[in-house]
Specification:
InterPro entries: P-loop_NTPase. The protein has about 475 residues and is of the alpha/beta class. Helix content is about 40%, strand content about 20%.
């Protein structure tokens, strides 16, 4: 009998994580389909082996080795799937107190391989099969058949685990959140950039995509941690002709030939967008996918939290699958620029911002048209220092942003706050004038008439400040 060697990865649910060398014998010449239920025999025998492992001291290698060898014989006879046998025996080991789990798993592996070299002739086990059934062993095959009825026929009996254990998560040893833009943009997940019209949101995102595709070390003042050096830009507002003009303008200062931008990919037809993105990311991975803009893709009500979250969750799953960041461009509500920067300024329900790991508001400076304020209004893993003041950027005639290395507290960006400060300045001027007039011999009534302020107010000012 000849053997072929195949490497079978063991699911991470089992410790230790290892690869098992599986020895598969060539098909047995004599088959017994229709006369012997090989699957049921294998399940029953495997149940016996698992029960034995659970009931006995597995630190005594003889017992574990014996049962693993027997099960290996049934694997060789095609009565049990190798991976099923290995998983169930190792699962039994993991439920016991064991001096060396790794050694026990290795014993199972070696004994299974040895047993497979001497497969049992199942035709001679008919009598034993009936005896096992009479003993009322658990009918594992029926449970498995019920599970198979609920899934497509082409799926294997064993499903990929959808559970991650605390042990598996902690063993990764991650000490900080991986970032694409350090420290603000996570490497994976959903991020939103929002603002009112004509603030340069699309220009900022195109500039970011250009920096990624050219492999820049920094974007504005932040370090880039690139993996694929590629970005995908989904454009719903600007067609290819408009993007041609805008891209030429934004890349002119770099002086590079067009072939240097081959890793910057644009998508203009948004029909079946998720399917297209999935295929393109599979063909060529990207560090970032930019969606410009959300309201052109989402056709439901912005005020329906559940609908918005359901829509965005599809993109979250896409991000998780391909390990890339997805940035979604959105808009702020009317007159919100009069307020402080806030995640609550976004259009629609709370469902949109709740789905985002980071929310950025971009707004124009109230006094200088060429200045923009980049405000991190939500960041799940950012400290407060990042979310209390804007990053002041200069927006030039080529539609490029530049860092000024300056920051402005959010409260100073509120027009209501500015008006309040202006009123306070005017009040102080009147107080100083009242003190001056009083020193020049004016009566209370005379000061009140001069400043057009009530006499009682003048009296309070003078008693407090003079």
């Amino acid at each position: 009998m000849s053997f072929q060697h195949v490497t079978v990865p063991i699911p991470v649910d089992y410790a230790p994580v290892r690869e098992v060398k599986r020895v598969i014998p060539e098909p047995v010449n004599k088959t017994h389909e229709g006369t012997v239920n090989t699957s049921r025999i294998g399940e029953i025998e495997l149940k016996k082996a698992v029960d034995s492992v659970l009931k006995t001291d597995i630190n005594k290698e003889v017992n574990l080795n014996k049962w693993s060898f027997i099960i290996g014989m049934y694997v060789g006879a095609k009565a049990i799937e190798y991976q099923t046998a290995y998983d169930r025996l190792c699962d039994a080991i993991d439920q016991k107190d064991c001096e060396d789990y790794e050694a026990a798993h290795a014993t199972v592996e070696d004994a299974l391989n040895d047993g497979m070299k001497a497969p049992i002739d199942l035709a001679k086990k008919e009598k034993e099969r009936q005896e096992w059934l009479d003993k009322n062993y658990i009918n594992w095959s029926e449970k498995r058949n019920k599970k198979n009825e609920q899934q497509p026929e082409n799926k294997p009996d064993t499903e990929e685990s959808f559970i991650s254990t605390g042990e598996a998560i902690l063993s990764r040893g991650i000490q900080e959140i991986p970032t694409l833009v350090d420290p603000i943009f996570p490497q994976v997940g959903l991020v939103a950039l929002a603002g009112s019209s004509d603030t340069g949101k699309s220009s900022w995102l195109r500039q970011f995509a250009i920096a990624i595709s050219l492999g820049d070390s920094f974007f504005l003042a932040w370090k880039l941690n690139l993996v694929h050096f590629s970005a995908i830009y989904v454009s719903t507002e600007d067609d290819e002709l408009a993007v041609n003009f805008l891209l030429n303008k934004q890349t002119r200062s770099r002086g590079l030939p067009p072939n240097r931008y081959k890793n910057l990919r644009f998508l203009f037809d948004t029909t079946s967008l998720l399917e297209k993105l999935d295929k393109e990311l599979t063909r060529q991975p990207a560090d970032c996918v930019i969606i410009d803009a959300f309201t052109d893709l989402y056709s439901g009500s912005l005020n329906q939290t559940n609908e918005v979250r359901t829509f965005l969750n599809k993109y979250k799953l896409l991000s998780d699958k391909h390990k890339c960041l997805i940035i979604v461009l959105h808009h702020t509500g009317k007159k919100t620029e009069d307020l402080e920067p806030s995640k609550h300024n976004l259009l629609g329900s709370q469902g949109f911002e709740a789905k985002m790991r980071l929310v950025i508001e971009l707004r124009t400076d109230a006094n200088q048209d060429d200045l923009r304020h980049l405000c991190l209004v939500k960041g799940n893993y950012l400290s407060r220092e990042y979310k209390q003041a804007s990053y002041v950027l200069r927006f030039d005639e080529n539609m490029l942003f530049h860092s000024t290395q300056e920051r402005t507290p959010f409260e100073q960006l509120s027009k209501a706050e500015a008006e309040k400060e202006g009123q306070e300045d005017e009040r102080m001027k009147k107080i100083l004038k009242a003190i001056e007039l009083r020193n020049n011999g004016y009566t209370m009534q005379g000061i009140a008439d001069e400043l057009d302020v009530q006499k009682g107010t003048i009296s309070k000012w003078l008693s407090k400040y003079s």
